Each structure stands twice: as structure tokens, then as C-alpha cells.
Amino acid sequence: MSFQPVKFYQTGTFTVGNRLLAENERSVQANMQRTNSLNSGHRACQGCGEALGARYAIDAAMQATNRQLIAANATGCLEVFSTPYPETSWQVPWIHSLFGNTASVATGIAAAMRVKGRSDVRVVAQGGDGGTTDIGFGCLSGMFERNDDVLYICYDNGAYMNTGVQRSSATPPAARTATTMAVGAEPGNVFGQGKDMPALAMAHGIPYVATATVAELRDLEAKVRRAMSFRGARYIHIFVPCPLGWGHAAQDTIRIARLAKETGVFPVFEAENGEVVSVSKIRRKLPVEEYLRPQKRFAHLFGKPPSTEVIRRIQELADRNIRRYGLLDAQGATP
Amino acid sequence: MFQIRIHGRGGQGVVTAAEMLSIAAFREGRHAQAFPSFGSERTGAPVVAFCRLDDKEIRLREPVLAPDALIIQDPTLLHQVDVFGGLARDGYVLINTSRSFEALGVGEIARGLRAERVCTVPATEFALKHVGRPVPNAALLGGFAAVSGRISLDSVAAAIREKFNGKVAEGNVAAASAAYDYVKNEMREAQHAQAD
Amino acid sequence: MRKPFAITLDPGSSLANHTGTWRTTRPEYVDRLPPCNGACPAGENIQGWLFHAESGDYEAAWRLLTRDNPMPAVMGRVCYHPCESQCNRARLDTAVGINSVERFLGDEAIRHGWRFEAPQARSGKRVLVVGAGPSGLSAAYHLARLGHAVSIHEAGPVAGGMMRFGIPKYRLPREVLEAEVRRILGLGVGLHLNSKVQNILETMRGGSYDAAFLAVGAHIAKRAYIPAGSAAKVLDALSVLRSMEGAEKPLLGRRVVVYGGGNTAIDVARTAKRLGAEEAVIVYRRTREKMPAHDFEVEEALQEGVLIKWLSTIRQAGDASITVEKMVLDADGFPQPTGELETLAADSVVLALGQDVDLSLLDGVPGLAKKDGVVQVGPGMMTGHPGIFAGGDMVPAERTVTVAIGHGKKAARHIDAWLRGETYVPPPKHEPATFERLNTWYYSDAPKSVSPVLDLVRRQSTFDEVVQGLDEGNAQYEARRCLSCGNCFECDNCYGVCPDNAVVKLGPGKRFRFNYDYCKGCGICVAECPCGAIKMVPEEI
Amino acid sequence: MLKQIEGSQAVAEAIALCRPEVICAYPISPQTHIVEGLGERVKSGALTGCEFINVESEFAAMSVAIGASAAGARAYTATASQGLLYMAEAVFNASGLGLPIVMTVANRAIGAPINIWNDHSDAMSQRDCGWIQLFAETNQEALDLHIQAFRLGEELSLPVMVCMDGFILTHAYERVDVPTQEQVDAWLPPYEPRQVLDPAEPVSIGAMVGPEAFMEVRYLAHAKQMRALELIPGWAGEFREAFGRDSGGLLHSYRTEDAQTIVVAIGSVLGTIKDTVDELRREGVKIGVLGITCFRPWPLAAVRAALENAKRVVVVEKSLAVGLGGIVSSNVRTSFTGSPDAVHAVIAGLGGRAITRAALARVFAAAQAGTLEPVTFLDLDRALVERTLAREREQRRSGPIAENILRDLGVVAARPH
């Protein structure tokens, strides 16, 4: 019979760590010596996806740069819950300036490092979807266009959570927010044209663009590592569920992120110099209802009668992603 | 203090003229101040630039309202803008033209001034001849040096060379010298005319 | 650095903020009983030894396994592995091939000549074991490891009991059996062959034993009345199988009819085939669904050309033929005669209708209770007579080798306690690790690796072992398919997914600890634990 | 070395001599010539160890400067008018974070109506942003103030805004003495940050501060500015010793001895005022001038002392607090011990309106005569505004004011009066 190569079926490649893996193959988060760049004691809500994503990303970046890292942070949940006087949770040199200028601040830091000959020190900028796709977009676009040596990370939870869940240009259609209430003839957020931030980043032709979710840690870490292997402007868009804003159970944060990927709602891929070079295939394809139903912000779609038409349109968007990025294998899903 | 006002159109190097004039004076150890009638005028629009010369520090920041000298780079402005406004009775006037004051329709004004202080010079022609472009400013400075005697041709040449370099500089210097000689010659003839 | 006041802060200072106070429920690590362990009649810690096998430490795996079962090589061949039918992985793709890994470990042990550690201390007590079958050998092994002096009295000429006389070579090669018996004897267990115990009390007195464990098995074939002609050749399955161990093989003829529906019937039919019978027909009065024989054995038999006549009973046996009557199942699933008869050609009829126990050695033992031809025992395997314990086929239980081995272990522990004047209290069982508690996303799909099977021709003509073993690659692959249901396998998920870094990793083999100073009780660790080894419990307020 | 150069070039020279490490540029008149000059120096290699970054907005310019400064680099940018307002949020942030960025503001009016000419509305709109604000009277002073600004800002860990009148100074050719690199290096030590983003010693900069400490943070910002009031005069002295001329300082009095009337002003208009005052002095008028160089922090005590013996004060200012009157004059009043009515605000030169000796002489005379209004708009075309007001009274939809006035005047662009 054909000999099957030994794989780690028990711990799979999906878990954070794996006692059967060699040290060098282990994830940063599995490491006992991990940096905890975002330390305990922060004031994020229970089950905060952003807190999770930020530690994953910055820990990976710190490892990739041998801890020669400086971070700039936009105003928002991440900034507020991590640095309320007199305590900070950050273990990296970190600066918060304003809501809309993070990319520029990072550019300034990178310029300072260049002029001081510290090419070993790398710079990350991070912000939420509001600080990235809305108020910070101008500065970000400028940073991309100049190809400044900065990795910009957007933690996308699809609304202005810090101010109480108001709509951002990253808020999905039909989602309820404080400024798109679930009332009237078309409850929830409008079906706009959307603002495909990763695609906009790619349109700048920058060296590296990637999307990731907090559900696939190894993938996220690999992308941060990859990003750090480039010089110039890089962008990673991380999908981070928000229990408070989305109205799902705190323990479901990772599950929701997984569902977003498995339904095609959030395509996970990598692009270099404006071209998609790899996609994370859907493993077990699911209809969008599976993703929408656990979230109160979509509860109005499942009333009596359910808004089948709206759900169909959301499914269409997911299917478009699946087509556009080839998220399914020939046989439909990947093991 | 001696104040010069230069009238011209955007693109004719009016502001540069004032600046070069200030540089020339500076090189002669005097204090000088040059500034434009600030604006967002584009090519062809009327432009005014000012220059003050003095032996002590110049503190005054107002525009030149009562000029001791006028340099008019473009005669078509004569009837469009109040170019002679505030000109002192014994002021100097230098107009870039190959025509006469009468022909320009400002004979009366000219006659009201001291003959040896008003003059015309075909600066644009000199510019075309020596620089190859219709920029009369340098040539006019040469003419101004001749008519006013307030600045030496050498200083003007030096200022031109500070602003420009290479062929452009030398071309402009040549144009300035030519205009200088032209004006000197005109003035001589005018004196003879008076003498006769 | 003279830092500006308030706007500039020192790194990591938020540790001063104990967010654990927000918590209303707290996560706690638990261990749960994996279904395989729960289902193993021998009480093996299957998940435990698979854990070692995964990392390639086969000796550690074998040593853990043999803490409960001294005969993995045998078990890996003859056990009907109820563990696999309970395996949660079956709900995902297919059950983990526990049995084949066990066999691999057993064979590795034989190959490397691994031996059991001798007991630390001698108890000075003597224990008599009657019968060298699986149950007796198991009891002897455990008692010996507990430091007691054990001797086995076996009626037959060789050790093994049903493992030798009831199971054909092609399922259990004898050298494997002998190797594992030898290893047990290696612990200093005395074995007296051809010494049938006639009277247990005398024997005990004679050998001044402090206790006895009886495991004589069930060797008396059940007979059913079948009108048979003088020339008719009617044999019983047990003697047929037993004679296979002897010099001359039984003469069954070209067409053999086997009567019965148990595993023994299958064994005989397959044996007949190998002895050269053109036809081996099993006559069974009910349907395949109702057949007690294990499905995979029926399957193998059919592959080898064994025929089975369902819903039939033998009315009469002639010299070259038999008459069978068709049956139908009534509403309660019991077969009822139809009167419809049919004749089958048959050179011999082999009856495989089960066995009875020879309890003569117990005659006159006071306090002993017998019922339905077997000995009644208490929860500690002790008979009504103090000091005399019993197990295996002679007590009421399913009659399988694995159950017998389990009896041996159980009895040994109770005997040990009894000898010290105590009662053995088994440790409390963890609550079961059900499939619902798993987060199966984290296990990548990996169907069972099928053990190589001997090709048909050789199976039908020889007694070579039908099912071959796994090579190391497959064995490890198989071991790694284990989901580790209900018990932490250090996948680091909880450590990685905690948004508050409130999980402390204690290092290889040491698992994890919660730092309740910072745990906000979000429960992500519980939701994302693959094996359900964390539970949320409400905080007391 | 003496040079006859444009004011913008003089500033570019000064900045280059200060060894800036990061310069952010975004075009807006009339500051463009400064960053153009610097950009050329960096590109040509004349200015080394400096990153010149063309950003996409003034907001980004200040933000890049914030990042650079926080990472320990000496950062500079320049702007004007709308640009300063567009970066306003970041301007406050830079001072809040205590980052010693130096910025030139080429003072210009603020629209609407859009107007590119000089006045002080832009700088005044940011007077409470926490930056030190210095105003240059001449191009020489503009040059010198930039050199002082870096040292002052870096000593106090505060950003400094050097204001110079757009066009009037930035575009004026005049004599300046450009110091040598040695002189500047001797005067200006390398930037040693109070706080810095450094992987070797990680800190979090820009924490969220609540009511429990915000007052204190603000007080400390105030205290730092007060400290500047102590440092500046001393440094002006040091500067004189090092460079041989008077530049900077908090304020300068001119012929104020025995002056009954003191004219207060900031920026380049002081020259015209001094000439006017000289004429009046010749006529025996007891009038003097007080020029204020340091507007923020406000040199309360120094101004009070300078105005001690004045009977009346005329503040000529190029900014208007709509609905109040003067801005500088409001500050002056806080320093004037006499009756507040004796402090007159003369709003002049808005949107580039020329301020002439003649006009100034008139208001000073009026002041002497005691007939000067509390708030006067210099050279205001009364008839014109009356007509406009009348028009607005007559018809509801009277149209856009600016365009109506231009139509009324029959011109398309302002010209010198």
C-alpha cells in the first residue's frame, strides 16, 4: 500500500501550537517566550477580536524584526483600551497622535530612522477601519503612493466601536449600527458600493497587501512575517469581530471570524505589487446565514418573515468574492 | 532714498528686474529693497514691482506710491494702468519702445517732466538680438543705469550674472550694454537738440 | 529620559490593572473520560498510550498499555475493539485504528524484546491461578507485578486457552501468542501444564495458597439434538478447532456445513475452506443483522467464499446431505418454522452452538453460588467463598478474550487488596468526553489507514495471517488521528487565543494554568479548545 | 556673510544651517519658496543627513513632523493661511505631545473670500495652540529667529512657530547677514529629545489622560511657556555676543522715552511705523513704538513695563477678532495699567491692503488729538461698505458680498493703493 507521509492530524495545522512540531516550525503565539507586545491589564471588552489581532500581529512583527520595532496607533478602541493614563499595555515603543494621521506619523518615524541610519528599526502603523478607510485614508494613500517603509495594519471590525458603534465605510450592508438602525423600510446599513480597502491598497501597486482573520493565527503570523521581508509600503487588513458592536457571544469571536472566511464574506488572500499571489481556500463552504445569524446586528434579517431578499444579496456578495478570488477548489472545498 | 517702480506684464521679468536692480545696488554697498506687487497674476496680466535704494537700512514696507523713477516694460500698459501715478516732477521715466512719446500718446506727460530724465529704448529688440527671447528686463536696467546714473552698468552686469548664468547671463549683459549705449546716445542727441 | 508627565508611560505598566475582577464565570481545565478508554473491557488507557505513540516513543506507549493489558500483540489481533466503535473520530471521518496501533506496539515489543519491570517488593503471599487462558494469564501477570508469588495450573498441554484452541492461526499466529505468554512467565509466574485441578480447596491447601483465581474457561461444546443417520458425520466446532493444533488435521470432506451464528461458526467455516473444502456453508436460523458474529469477520468469510444460509435450521443430517427448514422472523424477531424443507449436500456437519463450563472442580466448596452453568461472583470478582475469585468465560459476562483479560486485571486488584485485608476501591471515573464538547475544526481531515490485507488466494489456501500489521509510518499516522477527547494535548490554543494573555504556559508535559488576575472570563479558550478540556464555571459573588 | 536675497531664501539658508533631519513640504503661497529652496538643497546634496518628504496635505506635513520628532529627529515644516487651519488638529497635538518642531508660517489671510495676501489671521487663529509664536520684523530677524527657535523649542520640548509676513518679507529682496555653519553649530547643540521612540527603551507616547491628570498636563504646558519668558531675553543677549546683532528677545521699544503715545505692533509693519514715528518726532510729537517679537507666550510683565509711562496706546494689528475687534490689542490691554479705553485697536492691512505712512500718520494724529475710535479700520472704504449694507437691507437675496464689492470697484484683482 502507498505510504502516507506523517502529518500532525491531531494538532492539525489549525491550532496555535503543536507539541509535535519542531521549535522553528511553531507559531509565535505558541512560544513561551513570546513578547506579549500588548500586555495583560488592557481594558478591551471580553472576547475583543482587536486585542487578539493586535497581539498576534505585533508579536509576529517583533519576532520578525528581532524586536527592533516602533508602532504608531490611530485613535480608537485599540488606543483607548491599551493606554489609559497611568498605564499602558504596550511593550513596544508606541505613539498615538491623532485619528486620521497615523500613516503620516509612521512615515515620519521611518524617515527619522532612515536619516539616523537605523535601517534595522522597522515601523508599523495600526488603526481601526474608521481610522483607516475613512478619516485616515488621505494620509494612508499618501504613504502608499510614496512607498514609505511602513507596514500599515487595519483591524477591521466594521464600525466606530470606540464612540458607540456608528457606521463606517467598512460597515457591511444591512448591518445595524447606532447610525444605521434596524428600522424603516430598509433596516440597517445601505447596500452601498462598498470600499474595498485591500483592493485600493493594491491599486497603489505597493509591494505587499494581505488580508487575514483572527481565526487563522498561523496564516496571520505568516503574512506579518512576509510583510516584514519587504521594504516599502505594506498593508495588512485583519478581520476582527467585536462582541459588543456585533452582538455576538464573547466566546464566539474566533468562530465568527472563521465563519466570515468559510462563507466567502471575507476573502483571505495575499497580493504582491498589485497582483494576487495566493488565496486561503474555503475549507467547508457555508451559506452566509451561518455567519449572519449569530450576530445581533443582523437579527432583523431573521425576523418573521425573514428578509430572504437581503440575505440573497449578501450571499451574492459572498459568491462574488468566491468567484473573484477563486476561494473554492474544484471539488468545492479543501481539506 | 530713491524709489523705482517697474510696470510690465507677467512673463516679462518685471519682478526679476526689481530684484536685479536691488542686487546691483547691494554690490555698490548700498541698502536695497525689492519686492513685487504680490499677486497671483498669470502671464500677460499687468504686473508691478518695486525697488528702493538708500544708504541706510530701509524699514519702509509700503508699496512705492511716489516713485523717483518709472520703468515701463510694456507700453501697451500706458493707457490701461495708472503708470505715472505719484511720479515726482523731477522723476525718471524709461519706456520700452521704439516709438516716440508722442506716438505713444503720452507726449503731454513727457513734456511735463525734465527732458533729460525721460527716455525710450527698444529693449525688446535688444533682448531678441542678444538673448533670443522677448525679455526686456535686463536691457531696461542697462537703459536705466544710463538715464539715471544711479547705478553703474558694471553693477547691473554683475547682478545679471548673479541671477542667471552661462549664455543667458552673457546675452542679457550684452543686451543691457547695448541699451545703455543706446540711451547714452539718445541723451547726447537730446542735449544737442536743446543746444541747437 | 525625563519623560513628560502623563502623556508618556512606561512599558507594560497595565499589569497593575487586574482585569480578572470583571469576570462572572471562570474557565477551568478538566480531564474527561475518552469514549475509547470507557469502552475498553481491559480498561486500557488507550488515549494515554496513543499520546506516546504519536511522538514516536513506542516503548513508553507499550509500557503504559501493558499496565492494564499484558498481551497487546494478541489483543491487536483478536480483540473486537469496542473502543473503535465508540471513537468520536468516527463522527468526523472514521474511527482511529486503535486496534492496529496496539498490534504494532505489541509486535514492536516482541521485536525489541522489551520486558516488564519486576515488582519492587515481594508480598510473601501465594496465589493460585487455575487456567492459563487470557483471564488466568492476565490475573497472574497483574498479581506478579503486585509482588505476589503466582502459579498457574493448566489442564491442557499448552498455555493460551481459547486463544490457542478457539482462535485459528490465520487470526493469531502461535509464535505471537507464545512470545507474550513467555514474557508473562518471565515475571516469575509458575506454570504447571497438564495439571487439572480436581478440587480447588485441596489444591489450595496442598500448595498453601492464600487466594485463588479461577479461570477455567468454557470448553464443553453445546450439543443440539439433530436426527442423524448412522453415516452422518457430525462434529463440534471446538474439537475441530482444537484438533487444528494437533498433528493430524480433522477430515471434514469437500462440502462442510457449519451450524450456528457466532464467531466460532465463522472460524470453523473459514478453517474448513483452508483445509480444502470446496463448499463451506454456514446455516443460521436468523438474519445477518441478528448474527452475533462480528461483521468484519462475516465479511472476510464471505470474501473467502464461505456461503451462509440465512433463516434456516437443520432438521436432519444424512450421510451425504442434510435437510434444512426455512424460518421466518416473527414480530419479536424470533425465528418460526415454515415447514418448507430443502436438502443440502454435506460431507460433514459442524455444530458451533456455544460452550459450557466444567465446574467440577468447585464441587463441595461452601458458600459458592452457581447459576446457568456459570459461577456467580461479586463486584470484586470474588465468589461466595472468601479468597476464591473467578473470571473469564466461567462467570456471567460476554465471552471475549478482552473481557477475560479485563477480569484478570480486576480480580488481581481485588485479590491484592483482600490479601492485605482491605477492599479495593477503583478511582472515580471522569465524566465522559462527548463529541459535542469537541471543536473539530482544529482536526484536519484524515481517514483511517487500512491495514494491508493478504490476497484472497493465499487466504483460501493457507493459514497465513490474514490481516497484516501497519508499518511505523501508518501506525504513527493512525495514532495521530486521535482527537485526545477530553484531555489536554498541549495544542497551545488556549494560550494563543486569550485576548488578555491570561493563560500561562507551563512547558512541555506541564500543560497550562489560568492567570485569574487578568482572565476576564470571555470563554474563547473554552470555545476554541479542540478536545473540550476546559469548562466554564460561574464565579461566586 | 552679507547677501542680497529673497526673504524665503534667507529662511531656507537658516534652516539648512540648523541641520534639520526631516523636512515635510506641501505647497501653499506664500511659503513655497522656502521649502523649494530646502528641497533643492537636499536633492543636490548641499544639505545632507536630511529627509525631504513631499506630503499630500498640511495635515500630513505636521503629522510626519510629529512622527519624526517623536523618533528623535529635528523636524521642520512651513505653511500659511488655509494650510495652517487644515493642519490645526495636528498643530495642537504636536504641542500637547511636547515635540519641538519648528514651523514657519508665512502669514496670509484666511478665506472666504479666498485671498493670498498678507495678514495675521492664520497665526492668530492658532495663538492658543500651545506653540511658542515668534514674529519677525525683517528678513534678517526671520533668519535669526529660526536658529533661536530650534534651540528654544528643544530646550523646553515645545514646538515653535516663526511667523513672517507673506510676500512682504517672504518675497522681498533685501540685505541679510547669513551666519557660518560654525557659528550656528556653536550656538545650537544637537537635538537631545526629552522623550524618544526607541526599541531599546520602549515607552508609550500619547496616552489617553482623563480628568484626574488633564489639568496638570495643561498646567505644565503653560508653565513651560512661562519658562520661555525667562529664557528668551538671556538668549537674545547670547545671540548678540555670538552673531553680533540684536535679534529675537521678547519685544523692542523704539523712541519710547518720554512718549505719551506708544504704537504697538508685530511683524514687518513695524518698519513703516518707525518711519512714520520718526516724522512725527520731527514735528515734536511725543510718540514711540513697541514691537512685540514673542507673542506666545505673552510677555505680560515686559509689555507692562514698556507701556508704563504711556498715556495712550495704539495697537496696529493685521488681524480681526470678528465681533470683538483687535486680538493683539486685547492682549495689550491685559498688560496696560492705565484705562483700557486708552488702548486703541487699529485693524490694518487685512488681506494685503497696503499700510501706508500717510494713513498711519492720520491715525496717530487722531490718537494724539484724542479722537481715535476704540476700534478703527485703517483705510476702510466706508462708502463701499455703506452701499453694500444698504443693498442688503433692501433685498433679501443680495448676492455674494465679495463679488458684489469687486463689481462695485470695477476691478478683478486688488492693486496697491
Notable features of this structure?
heterotetramer, A: 335 residues, alpha/beta, Rossmann fold, 8-stranded mixed sheet, 11 helices, disordered C terminus, C: 541 residues, 5-stranded parallel sheet, 18 helices, 29% helix
Straight-line distance between termini of chain D: 36 Å
Low-confidence stretches of chain D: 412-417
Percent helix range of chain D:
40-55%
Strand order of the largest sheet of chain D: 3-2-4-5-7-6-13
Through-space gap between termini of chain C: 45 Å
- Please state the second-level CATH architecture of the largest domain in chain D: 3-Layer(aba) Sandwich
Sheet with the most strands, sense and barrel status of chain C: 5 strands, parallel
Radius of gyration of chain D: 22 Å
Shape of chain C: globular
Helical residue percent of chain C? 25-40%
* Uncertain segments of chain C: none
Our count of helices of chain D gives: 15
Number of helices of chain C: 18
The strand order across the widest sheet of chain C is: 5-4-3-6-19
Number of strands of chain D: 16
Instruction: Look at the helices and sheets of chain D and give the structural class.
Output: alpha/beta
Instruction: Name the largest protein-protein interface in this structure.
Output: A-C, 59 and 62 residues
Number of domains of chain D: 3
- Average pLDDT metric of chain D: 95
Please, could you describe this protein's structure?
The complex is a heterotetramer of chains A (335), B (196), C (541) and D (417). Chain B is α/β, with parallel strands linked by helices and 196 residues long. Chain B is 43% helix and 18% strand. Chain C is an alpha/beta fold and 541 residues long. Chain C has 18 helices and 22 strands. In chain C, the strands form 7 sheets. A 5-stranded parallel beta sheet of chain C has the order 5-4-3-6-19, covered by helices on one side. In chain C, strands 8-15-9-10-11 form a 5-stranded parallel beta sheet. A 3-stranded antiparallel beta sheet of chain C has the order 12-13-14, with no helix packed on it. In chain C, helix 12 links the parallel strand 9 and strand 10. The two termini of chain C are 45 Å apart. The mean pLDDT of chain C is 91. Chain D has 3 domains: 2-243, Thiamin diphosphate (ThDP)-binding fold, Pyr/PP domains (Rossmann fold, 3-Layer(aba) Sandwich), CATH 3.40.50; 251-377, Rossmann fold (3-Layer(aba) Sandwich); 381-417, no CATH class. In chain D, the strands form 3 sheets. In chain D, strands 3-2-4-5-7-6-13 form a 7-stranded mixed beta sheet, with helices on both faces. Chain D has a 6-stranded mixed beta sheet with strand order 10-12-11-14-15-16, with helices on both faces. In chain D, strands 1-8 form a two-stranded antiparallel ribbon. In chain D, helix 1 (7-17) packs parallel to helix 7, helix 3 packs parallel to helix 5 (88-96) and helix 11 crosses helix 12. Classes of the chains: A alpha/beta (335), B alpha/beta (196), C alpha/beta (541), D alpha/beta (417). Chains in contact: A-C, A-D, B-D, C-D. Chains A and C meet through helix 1 and helix 9 of A and helix 16, helix 17 and helix 18 of C.
